[in-house]
Task: inverse folding
């Protein structure tokens, strides 16, 4: 059957310059993942990690009952030379859902490009995990995919990601698609654990993380802020919804599409300050991540405030920085733009890439504007993921892998030159 679909895919590819469309099988059902042992209230689950500064890692996990939030770790399996303690918390939602105990422990200092073995909850915990720290030299490898959800397509995308030896995974918003039904967050945590416990996941929020219900639940981002703690304080931010971080040679801005972004807002002032303090000699590459795209030729999500007004507010800040790449999600398809500023080609503008194609249950956004604007170089409505290898201070290679009937197939690729290497683009 897979061979039949593969032949159909070849037949159904329609090329229009550098733009292709692809008719593929439809949506797939959501995955259901229960705890491995409902009677075990102490075993860690939903384990994921994230970067904290240049030499530390945050370990996050959930248990049903309270435990001492501690992690033991070392560079040899079964031998844990170090330990660290952290914090625990939980949250209610609509008085009918009570989360488990959410634990966060920051460990380090850690050596670069090194495999560490760790246990959540102490040396007697039943399961050992491991992760590899990012290297302290080029090349640096990033995997990118947004709008994941918990479907069979999501599962396939995660399997493809696990086969590519990346250093960091970047997610431009819309994680679980719980849409206020909190148990889906638990399913999502279990689904991503095999990958998220081995490589740092750096995420920003999307519209599906808002989960605000008028009169019933006034607080926004309750689950997101409680479950996915990002290193916002280390970057001078006052909100988990926007922050920045470094991976050797690369500075990444994680911006919030669904919090205030107008001039004078906390996020705007933080971004101005963050950009002023970047040392481009140490981080020659500069990237930004948002959820709602500023450039988009798909018919889906046109004219939304979070896209239009945020672009009007912040585009010039990114252009003057200058930012090399901007990743976005929200639109359930893939699209790569040329270097752009104020809706036109500009050799000193960022390359915009929309990659909200992780595999969510809402399906694909299959309709594009016609004719295709010249600034859009490649667009296709398929699930998949991206691979960015920053080779050195001046060059990087980007490719997009289509999730082609459970086989990862390269469909778009391009070499990129850092704007720092172009003397006509002033820093």
Result:
């Amino acid at each position: 059957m897979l061979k039949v679909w593969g032949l159909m895919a070849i037949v159904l590819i329609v090329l229009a310059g550098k733009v292709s469309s692809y008719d593929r099988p439809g949506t797939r059902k959501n995955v259901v993942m229960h705890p491995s042992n409902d009677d075990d209230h102490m075993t860690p689950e939903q384990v994921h990690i994230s970067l904290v500064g240049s030499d530390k890692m945050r370990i996050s996990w959930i248990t049903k009952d309270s435990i001492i939030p501690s992690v033991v770790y070392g560079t040899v399996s079964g031998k844990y030379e170090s330990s660290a303690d952290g914090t625990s918390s939980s949250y209610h939602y609509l008085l009918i859902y009570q989360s488990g105990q959410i634990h966060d422990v920051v460990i380090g200092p850690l050596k670069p490009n090194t495999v560490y073995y760790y246990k959540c909850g102490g040396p007697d915990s039943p399961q050992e995990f491991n992760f590899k720290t990012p290297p302290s030299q080029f090349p640096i490898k990033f995997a990118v995919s947004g709008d994941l959800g918990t479907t069979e397509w999501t599962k396939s995308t995660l399997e493809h990601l696990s086969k590519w030896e990346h250093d960091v995974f970047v997610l431009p918003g819309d994680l679980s698609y719980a849409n206020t039904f909190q148990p889906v967050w638990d399913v999502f945590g279990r689904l991503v654990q095999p990958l998220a416990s081995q490589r740092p996941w750096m995420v920003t929020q999307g519209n599906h993380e808002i989960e605000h219900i008028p009169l019933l639940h006034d607080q926004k981002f309750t689950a997101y802020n409680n479950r996915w703690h990002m290193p916002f304080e280390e970057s001078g931010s006052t909100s988990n919804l926007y922050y920045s971080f470094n991976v050797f040679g690369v500075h990444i801005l994680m911006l919030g599409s669904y919090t205030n972004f107008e001039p004078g807002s906390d996020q705007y002032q933080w971004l101005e300050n963050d950009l002023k303090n970047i040392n481009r000699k140490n981080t020659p590459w500069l990237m930004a991540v948002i959820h709602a795209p500023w450039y988009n030729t798909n018919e889906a999500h046109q004219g939304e405030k979070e896209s239009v007004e945020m672009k009007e507010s912040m585009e010039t800040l990114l252009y003057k920085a200058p930012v090399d790449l901007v990743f976005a999600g929200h639109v359930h398809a893939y699209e790569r733009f040329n270097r752009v500023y104020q809706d036109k080609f500009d050799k000193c503008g960022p390359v915009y890439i929309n990659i909200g194609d992780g595999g969510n249950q809402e399906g694909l956004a299959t309709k594009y504007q016609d004719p295709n604007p010249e600034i859009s170089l490649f667009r296709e409505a398929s699930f998949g993921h991206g691979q960015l290898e920053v080779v050195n201070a001046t060059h990087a290679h980007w490719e997009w892998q289509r999730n082609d009937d459970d086989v990862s197939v390269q469909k778009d690729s391009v070499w990129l030159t850092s704007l720092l290497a172009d003397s006509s683009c002033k820093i």
